[in-house]
Specification:
5 helices; mainly alpha
């Protein structure tokens, strides 16, 4: 998110926004102060649109990594939950899930391979 100002500047300076107007433009844009945005020298509707689009693009790309990481944690948690539920609810868990369950010793009626 720290790149939002630089990304906005890269998008609007080539469109004609004077470099000395970029700071006030970025501040007004991030504050959602529409009245201040249109008062900044050199601002055009195209510049406002480009700046707003850059804000969205920067925030979207910044959160992409967060969502990917969260998805991975959810996936691991779901696999762990399924494995734990299966092992705890299965009377043959010691035969099937030795690698994922706590071994509680022999159970009545369960044949163990030797």
């Amino acid at each position: 998110m720290s790149h939002v100002g630089a990304n906005i500047a890269k998008a609007v300076i080539p469109l004609g926004l004077p470099p000395n107007s970029t700071g006030p433009f970025i501040g007004a844009l991030m504050a959602h102060d529409n009245a201040a945005v249109v008062q900044i020298p050199g601002v055009t509707p195209e510049i406002v649109l480009a700046g707003a689009q850059q804000v969205i693009i920067t925030f979207t790309s910044g959160f992409r990594s967060v969502w990917i990481a969260a998805s991975a944690f959810v996936g691991f948690a779901a696999i762990g939950k399924f494995s734990w539920s299966y092992c705890n609810g299965n009377s043959n868990a010691n035969l099937v899930c030795n690698s994922c369950c706590v071994y509680e010793g022999p159970q009545e009626g369960v044949q163990h391979a030797h």
